[in-house]
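pls read this stuff:
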Amino acid sequence: MPYFDTASAAPLHPVARQALLAALDEGWADPARLYREGRRARLLLDAAREAAAEAVGCRPDELVFTSSGTTAVHAGIAGALSGRRRVGRHLALSAVEHSSVLHSAAAHEAAGGSFTEVPVERSGAVDPAAYAGALRADTALACLQSANHEVGTEQPVAEVAALCAEAGVPLLVDAAQSLGWGPVAGRWSLLTASAHKWGGPAGVGLLAVRKGVRFAPQGPAGERESGRAPGFENLPAIVAAAASLRAVRDEAAAEAVRLRALVGRIRSVVAERVGDVEVVGDPERRLPHLVTFSCLYVDGETLLHELDRHGFSVSSGSSCTSSTLEPSHVLKAMGVLSEGNVRVSLPMGTAEADVDRFLDVLPGVVAEVRERLGAPVFAPPSPAPAASLVVDALGRRCPIPVIELAKVIGEVPVGATVTVLADDEAARLDIPAWCEMREQEYVGEEPADRGSAYVVRRLS
């Protein structure tokens, strides 16, 4: 069964498995102790730290191991903000950061601080100049991911890091999605990552803090990991994480070329065979293994279930796959279609035959879901078009409001409008996206007794 969700968690690398089993026998003792077993454990821990630091591009004494990537993010942000509290309490971050960064920002604001979200372009990347504009005299920390976890777009980290350095603001980079493919370029100040993203065991995160960065660990003090990650080190998992990071780096160059070609094939074939689909993310400046696309008139949850039934494990950022009824904050910030969203992230070693079979299965699955929802196959001409129409889609979840719009747009004359009444938050994103895909004019959103009224003008 092809597993195409390595952006969530990569399969355990064989080297990680071997290192883990060996470390269970050799690295069970307390590395802080001076007797033989403790010294042996300390040697393993020091070797793992040196290997991880080499991969990150920092000094071994600048890197600590945490219990997860999320813990590394929370500790990194809190420590940097506290260390620079005399400068100010403002935090800058992009609008498409991982939820761990957004949650840290919300907690910071609740404690009396402030933050600014820098918008992104439709590709998902920030404009360095716009990011620089968000930096203030009281900015204590800036955050920018190296590559987006949902759409794969690589961020201009080196450019932003240089601008932050000019402003005297440290930059924290969440490198969870990219570190297995190579080091992060630029003059970053702090970096976080998570081992299960590159094929290491879950439960190991990395936090690197450059020398010279003011940093004050929060919470009760601990004696281990420079006081930045309290608790007994999970040494076997740490050894396996470092060993697998080195292993995947050795394979990365060749696999990146191979997987980039497979992802390029998915990007082009999906657009050709599925129809009414938007492939999102930067087509060039992207991770080699990840592609995301959104299908009009499709219920994302049903689509994922049907693909799973055909043997494919993929994920989604569609609001239709969550209980919140909120579209993905990443897709929302990009202003792209969210309904029927599919994220494909290929693990190393993915067979070309599995990708071909996925591309053979996908069009039929999408067609079945659309037919089940009553989506239009084409817009039939109307012999007597109405001057304008109102579509009542109140109380109906995505993608039904867009489906109902597509059904009736051909019933009004060119220049006339269709007003869609909807109270599903996803409609605010999906109706403008539909207009751009179908070359119709999105007039705007108007208040309504319930929900909102979305006005669309027929152009062709």
